[in-house]
Design goal:
CATH topology of the largest domain: Rossmann fold
Helix content: 25-40%
Number of strands: 26
Number of helices: 17
CATH superfamily of the largest domain: ANL, N-terminal domain
Distance between the termini: 45 Å
Strand order of the largest sheet: 2-1-11-10-12-13-14-15-16
Length: about 550
């Protein structure tokens, strides 16, 4: 029923425009056009120069025949072209698909096919993949980026060098906001809970709101200097390519993580912010003290991927880095909850404060809700720090759904919540803490690894009768895959042979780091009791939620 606040007060072109983070680069150029936007070796570009380049990119994509709603994939390290792609691709109306450069070729080819990519912007380092893609997907437009090596465009029919591609575009390209902020802006593939990658689709509204939330959670100041230690292929760099532009900050690009290089850049470029998985934080925290010499300013850092150890948190504080712990998944644009610190924690001991900071926390500013619910009844668990349930999100910072997978989308959003598959508790002060990761996913160095994918690979070996993979604690990576294998009667094979077999099908970071042989524990119905296997390797995830698997 209409009331007086509706009559004659409908949405109009003058008072309602679709939200899109693409507009952040336009504002940065309009207001702070002469300020530095990109730093990468000898490259120094202002926001005005960057804006002109992304408009050229958008124009060139359109002229290449890519239409609104079609996919442009990119396979790039954290170099300036990767920042540009986060604006130029959606500015053209296309959907950005950032590929994980650590994956094996077969996985990336699956993603290119499944996402129906029309073009691939690829760094010359990955020329072999580009060549394979050009053979198997002859309609795919290859745009080759020359960085550490010259682009070999002659290897790919119809390929073009990135700079030549930009030169073909219009620096005055008249881009427009999307017709609907619900339109897709990005496609990100995640291991999910099965071996087949799922295509997570982001909308413009969610990317905009998460980019702004990043600013609010960090109190990120104008002109912050952000170092790209976090891969931009991962959840679009937690939406920080858009966040940095919203603050008219500086993108300090980093092709490959190296602790000494990071400290050198922090010192030389005045880096104020960076993000990273626990393994990155640990490498920096434990680096030689002399690498930090000359760094006197405050550095803010975000950590996610797995709960950082209290030891690492305390160590970061000791070296003068201000660490914020966030939590999320690909399906919620990266981080969507934060361990918001309280002033009263300052009076606590370092150990107690670090323990509190290791929790997954509370909802992001612009996320509607995060809670722990009973997965069967969808009732909130008691905030006693003991009652176990599933962590769930609700709000604008949730994906549109899984591409071409209505069933998985409906299940993920069952009951009006996004189901993370992660098990946790609510503490008496209202903070969420993970007690157990979903049983099929291993988080190693911030990367999701599907245990089912590894199991399927092990089953391909003729000697394997039963296989199960669980997370094993690891000092460097947080956790790594450990395989339990039951061989067929009369079969003989050692761990080295099985790992060599796995290497044929899996990326190196997915390989089992240990293999144990013997009869696997099962229920009376033959189901493998993975919680017992977790206990055997000393995992703190040796919990099995009744009815959840």
């Amino acid at each position: 029923m209409k009331h007086m606040f509706d009559e004659g007060l409908e949405r109009r072109e003058a008072n309602h425009v679709s939200l899109t983070p693409v507009d952040f680069v336009a504002r940065a150029a309009e207001v702070y056009g002469d300020r530095l936007a990109i730093v990468y070796g000898d490259v120094r570009r202002t926001w005005q120069e960057t804006y002109e380049r992304v408009k050229r990119l958008a124009s060139a994509i359109e002229r290449a025949g890519v239409t609104r709603g079609e996919t442009v994939a990119v396979l790039l390290p954290n170099i300036p072209e990767m920042v540009e792609a986060h604006y130029g691709v959606p500015m053209s109306g296309a959907v950005l698909n950032t590929l994980n450069s650590r994956l094996d070729t077969s996985s990336m080819l699956f993603m290119l096919r499944h996402g129906e990519a029309k073009a691939l912007i690829v760094d010359s380092e990955f020329g072999d993949l580009a060549h394979r893609a050009s053979l198997e997907l002859p309609e795919l437009k290859i745009i080759s980026v020359s960085d550490v090596a010259q682009a070999e465009v002659h290897r790919f029919p119809g390929a073009i060098d990135y700079e030549a591609f930009l030169a073909s575009g219009d620096p005055q390209f008249a881009w427009t906001t999307p017709p609907d902020e619900w339109d897709a802006i990005a496609l990100n593939y995640t291991s999910g809970t099965t071996g087949d990658p799922k295509g997570v689709v982001y909308h413009h509204r969610g990317a905009y709101l998460n980019a702004v939330s990043n600013i609010l959670e960090w109190d990120m100041p104008k002109h912050a200097v952000y170092l790209w230690t976090l891969p931009m292929f991962h959840c679009n760099g937690w939406c920080f390519p858009w966040t940095v532009a919203a603050r008219a900050g500086v993108n300090v690009c980093l092709r490959k993580f190296d602790a000494k290089t990071v400290y050198d850049l922090i010192r030389e470029e005045g880096v104020t912010h960076y993000c990273g998985a626990p393994i990155v934080q640990s490498a920096l925290a434990n680096a030689p003290a002399e690498w930090r010499e000359g760094i006197a300013h405050r550095v803010s850092t975000m950590v996610a991927g797995a709960a950082p150890s209290p030891t690492v948190i305390a160590r970061m504080k000791e070296i003068g880095f201000d660490l914020t712990h966030v939590y999320g998944l690909t399906e919620v644009y990266g981080p969507a909850s934060v361990c918001a610190r309280q002033d009263r924690w300052d009076a606590l001991s370092d150990d107690e404060r670090a323990r509190l900071n290791a929790r997954q926390g509370v909802r992001y500013h612009l996320q509607r809700a995060v809670s722990v619910l009973n997965p069967a009844t969808l009732e909130t668990v008691a905030n006693d720090g003991e009652s176990l349930g599933e962590i769930m999100f609700r709000g604008n910072i949730c994906m549109k759904g899984y591409l071409k997978n209505e069933r998985a989308t409906a299940e993920a959003f069952r009951g009006g919540w996004f189901h993370t598959g992660d098990l946790g508790v609510i503490t008496p002060d209202g903070y969420i803490r993970i007690k157990d990761r979903s049983k099929d996913i291993i988080i190693s160095g911030g990367e999701n690894i599907s245990s089912i994918e590894i199991e399927d690979t092990l089953y391909r070996h003729p000697a394997v009768e039963v296989a199960a993979v669980v997370a094993m604690p690891d000092e460097k990576w947080g956790e790594v895959p450990c395989a339990f294998v039951q061989l067929k009667e009369g079969a003989h094979v050692d761990a080295e042979e099985l790992i060599t077999h796995c290497r044929l099908f899996l990326a190196s970071f997915k390989l089992p780091k240990a293999i144990r042989f013997g009869k696997l524990p099962t229920t009376s119905t033959g189901k493998i009791q993975k919680f017992e296997l977790r206990a055997m390797v000393g995992s703190d995830r040796a919990i099995d939620l009744p009815g959840n698997g």
